[in-house]
Amino acid sequence: MRAGRSVLRIHSTTFLFMARALRDMGDGFVAVLLPVYLLALGFTPLQVGVIATASLLGSALLTIGVGFLGVRYDHRQLLFAAASLMVATGVAFALVHDYALLLVVAFAGTINPSAGSVSVFVPLEHAVLTREVTDAARTRMF
């Protein structure tokens, strides 16, 4: 390094961890606020539970699909696609008030009504982390 010039170098895993922290915080809010929001729209507790179930089932299928097909695609592009789907899901939930359409959005989207991290992001992040760190540092990283 030359004198007088400082270079701040942030490892790509830092960005991944920051994004995950923000997403997990948002998922925590969704787990609490989504049922309240849906009940405020006039849906019954059973309908709210069906929407939550549909979203978890859709997320599980999407995660399995990315697990099988993701090896063929760039992980960064898949992470951006998943983030775009997450934004689209949030916008759709804010705009759509029809129960049948909300079921479709919940199933096809990435909304996470649980407190844990159960989404398409998890296997993608794990794949990126294994690529970014050495074998010796992998256990510590996880």
Could you describe the 3D structure shown?
The chain has one domain. The protein is 73% helix and 0% strand. It has helices spanning 12-40, 45-69, 75-95, 99-108, 121-132, 135-141. It has 142 residues and is mainly alpha-helical.
Helical proportion?
over 70%
As residue ranges, the low-confidence spans are 1-9
> How far is the first residue's CA from the last residue's CA?
31 Å
* Rg, Cα atoms, Å: 18 Å
Strand content: under 5%
Count of helices? 6
- The tally of beta strands, per DSSP, is 0
Largest sheet: number of strands, sense, barrel closure:
none
Helix-strand string: HHHHHH
- Provide the residue-averaged pLDDT: 83
Topology:
Elements: H1 12-40, H2 45-69, H3 75-95, H4 99-108, H5 121-132, H6 135-141
Task: Record keyword descriptors for this entry.
mainly alpha, 0% strand, disordered N terminus, single chain, 142 residues
Quick structural gist:
With 142 residues, the protein is mainly α.
